[in-house]
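## Example pair
The file below holds two records. Each record gives the amino-acid sequence first, followed by its structure token line.
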Amino acid sequence: MGGRVLLVASWGLPAGWREVEYWVSVKHRAFEEFHPVVCRARSSTVAIAAALLGWGYDVDVVIYGADTIVNPGEVGGGVELRRRAQELYLGFFEEMVRGCSCCSGFSGSLLGRVDIVVVPGLGLYHGYRFGASIEHIFNKVFIDLYARLGRPGEEFKWVFMDLTHGVNYQVVATLYATIAAAILFGKEGRVVILNSMPVQSPAPATRGGGTAQVASGQVGEVPVVEVADVSQLQYGISFIRGLMSLKNFDTEPVKEVHKDLKKRGGEAVPEDVLNLIDRAVTFLNLVRNGMAALAYPESYMLPGPDTENRVKLGFNVCEELSRYERELDPAEFSYIPNIDRDSKVVDYGKTSMWTTLTRYSLTKVLKDICGELRSPNNLAEFLEGARKALDKRGYKAVSLMVKRENENLNSFIKNLEEYVRKCGKLLRSYSVVPENIEESLRSGSEVDVNVLLYRYFNESRGECVESISKVLEIHENEVKDVMRIKEMGRDMDVSRVCRNLAAHAGLEYSLVRSFSIVRQGGEVTITRVLYLENISEIAKKCLE
């Protein structure tokens, strides 16, 4: 029993909260053995934290308080406003812990494990219009929770949320941000959401004993209140769920959201993020459809038949993941307010929830997937990682396809030296391999598979033909058939090429120009693959 709990709370204006008797109980079956805790306190957050400590849990408390608690006219600027708000919330929390009837023995733990995060404000307060949007608040809370839940070595067993005290829009944004972060880190089933019965509060008092100005304007003024559509938060949750489906190599939900994001334009989601989503979908589709070798990081192609200037296929999205991780800058979403005293407006600048969700969430999901596939030293390692990932997700048939291809490649490589010994004179005459195979292996030289298997296959005779065809299990008639297709042009039979490509896990030999081979740890391995031209277009047609 026990473990670490993250208690998330949304706070508005604590000055008006009075002491009530809280009955804290949790209906979740994991907590049903615990008796309810009766606690006199000025905040349900304090009562819940004390109850969890009494039940044997370690508790970290994070309070998201609105900066509307501070009068902008009484501070020098946005940084001071934030600092002052943080001080006020911390002061209120300390007072409430010290006055809590059930906190005896826990006050030290509570005061030492609380963080105050001040979020942008929205509405009319102190005669100022706080101009944040619900997306500002969502982003601020989501990124903070992203850091907390993803912190190495600090695993939270449960995430509790107290919805009692916040302002309406603030509670909604905090709730959705908490759920989104919990889904992303695989903790949706371990979220406990609590609320308390409403109690009428007296007029809120300031620390000086007066009455706090909650709404803007003079006596008798009718405030202008906008009814805002916040349904984009639900779209955000749907997007997170779609991203999580990528972990099962299911790309359909994300493809639908991707279409919607493209319609929103670059102002909502940067073009590079949209491209990353598109590349992630292609990458996972290649693996899921048995064309894993095309997603190998060291895969190249010839851009045309008349040039040797190879280009990287670039299907492996894991290669650029570290760059995207470096670009994740929480400071970008600090939203330090700008106070305009003439217009009485507190401004936070523009923001987009989609930028936050795509950058942070997609990076997290891809990091988890790429961690499974590892950073391979050679093609065999990559295919084995792909095979295990496919097998884990129930793609048994595709997993066997990749396994078979890997075995064929290993067989091909193990017999390479034998080919050179038996057919050395013929192969060297066509410049297929250098005269000294060991020199080739040390330097990582390429073996021209296209030449080795096709161009001079029909001209070779005797022991060489028998050896190659036997080990590679390729019949001479099949080779002639492939050659005819190539002569007519690949587009004459794209469907057949696609079938072959899938059947051979991305290494159908009529589409491979050469392998780079090297000796690693006493074994000969493939470290680079060069495909013929147009392989990228062919692969995409196979995925349509």
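Second record, same layout:
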Amino acid sequence: MDFLTLASFLDVLATTGYIFLVIIGFTAVIFVHELGHFLAAKYVGIRVERFAIGFGPRLFGFKRGETDYCINLLPLGGYVKMTGQEDFQLEKGAVPDPKAFNNKSVGARSLVIASGVVMNVIFAAIAFMVVFMCGKSFHASQIGNVTFDSAAYGVLRPGDVPLKMDGDDVGDQTDVMLIPALHSGKEPMNVLARHRDGTEEWLKIDPKAAKGGMLDGLKSIGVDGDYRLVLDKKLDDSEKTAYEKTMKKSLLSGDLKPGDVIVRANGQPVEYYSDLVNLAQESGGQPITLTAERKEGSRTVEARAVLGVELAGPSIPEFQLLGAHPRMTIEAVQPGYPADGKLKEGDVILRLEDVDYPLFTNGDPDDRYRSPQLMELIQRSKGKEVAIVVDRYGERKTFTIKPKTWFYKSDVKLGIGNGVYSKIAALGQVDDNSVLGKAGLPSGVTIFAVIPTTQPTTQHESAGLPATRPSSKAATRPGDLPLTWSQFYQAMRSAAGSTVQITYQGGDGDIGTITASVPPVSTGWANSIAFRPRPLLLDPLVRTYKTNSPLAAAWMGTQKTGRFILQAYVTLDRLVRGDVSVKHLSGPVGIAYGSYKTARSGLVDLLYFLAMISANLAVINFLPLPIVDGGLMAFLLYEKVRRKPVSLRVMQATQIVGFVLIISLFLWVTWQDILRLLLG
């Protein structure tokens, strides 16, 4: 057996082991639920004919007393079969069985029905307790980056730590995502944040629907977690290529290696990625000089590098420089999709069908999802061929591509990832009613020079921005290098309150000039464009929950269980109200895949995931829907109040309706799970 064959064999063994752990974990969750029914039934004197884990044909088991204990073929559920549980009425002349479920009091039957849910809650609390005794790390709540044009932009800054949101304590990034997603108030959220200087401040943030990603359509404030400035050293051989590729894109010079610790940036001490984000914006997009420390044996040596800075957001209506939008570029091409073999990473999009320089959004302020204009044009094709023109290293190329359609043309894809072209100030669209549009600057030109013609009348610092000087690289004649976006931005910002002459070159090579009046910085225009450091592979800043005290762990486990139960009920409320789409629910496929991924992360992560599933299962099982425990409890409550059971006809009808609804939801969420796995 050669090395590759052995490695493949070991990988299969590992995968099989993870799947086995998942099956064992789900079996445990189901077992404790059915155990609750079983123990309560025995306690009130109901005969239990079968205690089964799984459905389908019986594989093995044993019989003790009047109960058959067995494992069935399909480990996707389980049941406890009690005498009389399915007998809605006695046959004429039949003698009531005192050990039958339907002959017990309403209180006894309620105890049996509720015990399964109670056991799920107990299991979740105990599992969380074990997790916190072992120690569980979460991405810390400290903010690493604030997405441009998000709800938090201009309110929170990188490096801030949210302490309370919407009345709830914030522990980690999970809370930072979930609390806004579940916010239903018409008023903005109250957020208590601790700033980097140690001061605390109450802020108001109004969450808005996220576009794309795992939070697509859910309310979000648009922040990401922070990272330690330690280059990820937990890289195996399969990830080294990705690491080197990322470093090659991000570093303009220098050589950083996994394990290096970045200690200074532009000569200033730094500790977190958020420090680099703030520097990138404060310096107006200039590259950042990094100094890192590296352990070599018993000594520490310094490593230096220059980190590139790029435009930080998409070309949305608010993301522009006095009306000038950046061009879109292709950041990735998905293998096997129509664009594969034609379009390439780094291509700059010049035209799609009849639209020059398509924007990231359609410009419709009423579109809460702010759908990309490019994506809308592709969707509009309904799978028919589209013409796309790109610039590839200065050469104009035209392609005709037939998009791939999914699921009756409801989803149409080329297979490309989009970004912002930020190397040079090559403009896309220029808004007609903007400062530069009214001055006559055409769309699609490249900026070569910005020369002030009058003295500024306002101070740049009035908006909290550092003073800058016009770029020394500004050129005024053909053949010189064009400005970068950073130079273009800094030149305009330094000329705030004055008049400038802008020299540009069109696509045909002709040189033109315009004269424009730059508004004072105090009008806020300088904040309509943002810069960020190019991505680095860093260690996340984590918060670890761990205690050696069983009592403390039990309290933490109880709190976490209550939190998940409350979140489940709030989520269901949002579903009914229409604030949350059913597409965010997961069925068996999604849960199984999620548990498989957590199993690969370790037993503690798997146990945490199963505890979360158990807490949510308790909520779902106790909803007042026919064929689940909550529906049976509703029937018993009716019987207690009316002093007679629900009629056979009503019970059968509601159970049929409930079965159809639950199966429909089951099929829908399973379909959504498959879409997520296929489409990413």
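Notes on the second record: The chain has a mean pLDDT of 81. Residues 180 and 189 are 8 Å apart (CA to CA).
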